[in-house]
């Protein structure tokens, strides 16, 4: 049995991360983020504020996690109301959450100015809110807002907020550096003092990144005794963001002294997928991944030509702080293709494709990948399209259907009752099962019309795609000229809960969309084990 202590990871991407400038999660996007977080292996997923808006309310109508504790966020009870007569508190307690995280004022200035109540009333509100959560059968957490500012102003009151929450039964009391302005030395000193009053096994840290120290502040709190860390995927959040879990997790698992002292719920296998998960999340947000991000950035293990290039290929461990494969990244020596082939073999093995390293088709596949990446493809977030491309080069994908042509018409007109409407109509002509089929369909926009037309009549394959659904559609313009290249990422799913991502790139948005759509259908047919019904298999 390990004698290491447990560190708990609390993700607040869907709540605090949702405060990011210009970001609004849809219900489907929230569900997709939960899938990423569950795959990563965090312990808590804070999903939002039920009752605050329709999306969060709908999200909390049913359980959304299988491993992590599904957590609702909300305020402590309103001053002057009982816990049974507070609609906001009721919405939180009636949600389908496992836990409730209450935000509470820990700065005396805010209590008097913002709440307009006495310090004693504030403490009573914390205790009564925790008690109400426990009575509802939920685990209680308390986020002490602006704790470090409050501690600097009145340490006794700030500490009394922590102690009150703990004595009331809160599983975790979280110290928030809400404005992100506290330095690591102060964090460590203050948290150590807190842990003399309340066990560190009940203390968490929530750090913002306004000085670029959120990760360092989180680690400082751990050194001082805190045993829960709150953060977000890729460090998103209001203003400058939150502590970045994608940076913290590899540090905790791989770097001394943390790796020798603590266990986290993220497995080695999940750690090996963290680069893919980070980039998948960025694609979900429709933003370019940070190439310089620690551990997972495309440049994190890249060396240009020069004195290090040849040495890295011979003794990479002397030039890299960790093996890039441990976090799912790869070494890039820009003057050599050797590292690319080894990484390609690793990726193929992940899809269950076994290829001899001397197979000449690998060189062709590697060349195709490099050429497509130069055109704008990004396969880190589109595994389904990558697997299809690899299998096509290796000759293992049947030609289920062949698209002869397609056409899309968008018409803006007045309907029969005089309303101005926009109607999209698509025509797709395909060869399937030795027959030429032409299908016409309307849709809510050109992409939806194309999707409906393409899937309208696939003959012997129709049953295999009956429950296929287009879940999300994202467009990114890769350059700003009038001849801009467009990248389209499509997320598809089925009734069993499987999800996959496909990609298309073209100067024409409709063409890029159609590439991603045809890949989605082909991938579904391949994964269903559908045969080609007499059609020829793609040539090697």
Short structural description:
By secondary structure, the protein is an alpha/beta fold.
Describe the structure.
- With 540 residues, the protein is of the alpha/beta class.
- The protein has 19 helices and 18 strands.
- An 8-stranded parallel barrel has the order 2-3-4-5-6-7-8-9, surrounded by 7 helices. It has a 3-stranded antiparallel beta sheet with strand order 13-14-15, covered by helices on one side.
- A hairpin with a 5-residue loop joins β17 and β18 (499-506).
- Residues 334-339 and 534-540 have low confidence and may be disordered.
Q: Measured on Cα atoms, how large is the radius of gyration?
A: 26 Å
Counted up, domains total: 3
β-sheet strand percentage: 15-25%
State the shape: globular
CATH topology of the largest domain: TIM Barrel
Find the structural class using helix and strand composition. alpha/beta
CATH superfamily of the largest domain: Aldolase class I
* End-to-end Cα distance: 51 Å
Strand order of the largest sheet: 2-3-4-5-6-7-8-9
InterPro entries: 2-isopropylmalate_synth_dimer (IPR013709), AIPM/Hcit_synth_CS (IPR002034), Aldolase_TIM (IPR013785), Citramal_synthase (IPR005675), LeuA/HCS_post-cat (IPR054691), LeuA_allosteric_dom_sf (IPR036230), PYR_CT (IPR000891)
Protein name: Citramalate synthase
GO biological process, one term: isoleucine biosynthetic process
Organism: Amorphus orientalis
């Amino acid at each position: 049995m390990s004698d290491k202590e447990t560190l708990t990871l609390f993700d607040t991407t869907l709540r605090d991360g949702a405060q990011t400038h210009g970001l609004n999660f849809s219900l489907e996007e929230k569900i997709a983020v939960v899938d990423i977080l569950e795959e990563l292996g965090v312990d808590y997923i804070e999903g939002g504020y039920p009752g605050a808006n329709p999306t969060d309310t709908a999200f909390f109508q049913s359980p959304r996690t299988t491993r992590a504790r599904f957590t609702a966020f909300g305020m402590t009870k309103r001053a002057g109301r009982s816990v049974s007569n507070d609609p906001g508190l009721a919405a939180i307690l009636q949600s389908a959450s496992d836990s409730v995280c209450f935000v509470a004022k820990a700065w005396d200035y805010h209590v008097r100015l913002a709440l307009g109540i006495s310090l004693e009333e504030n403490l009573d509100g914390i205790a009564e809110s925790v008690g109400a959560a426990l009575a509802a059968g939920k685990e209680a957490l308390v986020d002490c807002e602006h704790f470090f500012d409050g501690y600097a102003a009145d340490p006794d009151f700030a500490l009394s907020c922590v102690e009150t929450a703990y004595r009331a039964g809160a599983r975790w009391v979280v110290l928030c550096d809400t404005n992100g302005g506290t330095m690591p030395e102060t964090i460590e000193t203050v948290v150590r003092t807190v842990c003399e009053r309340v066990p560190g096994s009940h203390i968490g840290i929530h750090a913002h990144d306004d000085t670029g120290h959120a990760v360092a502040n989180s680690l400082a709190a751990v050194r001082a005794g805190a045993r829960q860390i709150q953060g977000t995927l890729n460090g998103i959040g209001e203003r400058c963001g939150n502590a970045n879990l994608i940076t913290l997790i590899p540090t905790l698992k791989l770097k001394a002294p943390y790796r020798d002292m603590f266990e986290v719920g993220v497995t080695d296998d999940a750690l090996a997928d963290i680069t893919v998960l980070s980039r998948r999340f960025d694609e979900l947000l429709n933003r370019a991944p940070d190439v310089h991000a620690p551990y997972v950035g495309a440049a994190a293990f890249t060396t240009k030509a020069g004195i290090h290039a040849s040495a890295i290929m011979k003794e990479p461990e002397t030039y890299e702080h960790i093996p890039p494969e441990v976090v799912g990244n790869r070494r890039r020596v820009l003057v050599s293709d050797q590292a690319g082939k080894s990484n390609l073999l690793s990726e193929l093995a992940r899809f269950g494709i076994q290829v001899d390293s001397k197979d000449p088709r690998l060189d062709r596949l590697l060349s195709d990948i490099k050429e497509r990446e130069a055109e704008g493809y990004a396969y880190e977030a589109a595994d389904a399209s990558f697997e299809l491309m690899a299998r096509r080069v290796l000759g293992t994908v049947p030609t289920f259907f062949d698209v002869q042509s397609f056409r899309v018409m968008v018409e803006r007109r007045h309907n029969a009752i005089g309303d101005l409407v926009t109607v999209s109509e698509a025509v797709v002509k395909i060869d399937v099962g030795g027959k030429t089929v032409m299908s016409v369909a309307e849709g809510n926009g050109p992409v939806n019309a194309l999707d409906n037309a393409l899937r309208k009549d696939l003959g012997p394959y129709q049953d295999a795609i009956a429950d296929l659904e287009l879940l999300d559609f994202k467009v990114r313009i890769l350059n700003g000229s009038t001849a801009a290249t467009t990248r389209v990422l499509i997320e598809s799913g089925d009734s069993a809960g499987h999800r996959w991502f496909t990609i298309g790139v073209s100067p024409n948005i409709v063409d890029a969309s159609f590439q991603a759509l045809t890949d989605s259908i082909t991938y579904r047919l391949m994964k269903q084990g559908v045969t080609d019904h007499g059609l020829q298999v793609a040539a090697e």
